[in-house]
Design brief:
By secondary structure, the chain is α+β, with helices and mostly antiparallel strands. It is built from two helices and ten strands, in the order αβββββββαβββ. The chain has two domains: 33 residues, no CATH class; 122 residues, Immunoglobulin-like.
């Protein structure tokens, strides 16, 4: 015996499949973006503030997350390829943690420098779960823009 077509039931099933797919996608996206990896920085050139212009603008530890934002660029060299990563260095264990980092486009650095070079993509932002990092980590910046491989060790410390 054939059942008659039930439009309401079909719509409910399709909506349920859509919601489950969207929830799965968002969970996967969250999981991928919260990966904190240990890395080896032995091949990096350690630089000072005389060679690079950098600043960690904000470190915020709220609601179970650590948010770090700032900028890093080499004065006199346009940032053609934005590839800056925030690292957390734990001095007691000697381990560097690579944090999920987003490069942010803002024109204010270029306007502030006013030297004819483009620093629009020099800013970064990182948001990480607090539970992924040990307390007392120092913030480091791994500058890989324009094919460089430089490590900037800041004096900023992450406290909960």
């Amino acid at each position: 015996m054939e059942r008659p077509y039930n439009r309401a039931r079909t719509v409910k099933i399709l909506m349920l499949l859509f919601v489950l797919s969207a929830a799965g996608y968002l969970f996967l996206l969250f999981w991928i973006n919260q990966r904190v990896e240990t890395i080896d920085v032995s091949g990096c050139e350690v630089v000072s503030s005389a060679e690079m212009e950098y600043k960690v603008d904000r470190i915020s530890c709220q609601y179970g997350y650590v948010e770090i934002s700032g900028y890093a660029y080499e004065p006199g060299v346009s940032v053609d390829q934005a590839d800056t990563v925030v690292l957390a260095y734990h001095p007691a264990s000697g381990i560097y943690y690579k944090l999920p980092t987003e490069n942010v486009k803002k024109e204010k650095l270029t306007k502030k420098a006013d030297d004819g070079f483009n620093y629009d993509y020099a800013q970064f932002k990182s948001v990480t779960l607090r539970s992924k990092l040990p307390d007392g980590c120092r913030v480091c910046i791994w500058y890989r823009g324009n094919g460089e491989n430089r490590l900037i060790q800041t004096e900023e410390v992450i406290f909960y």
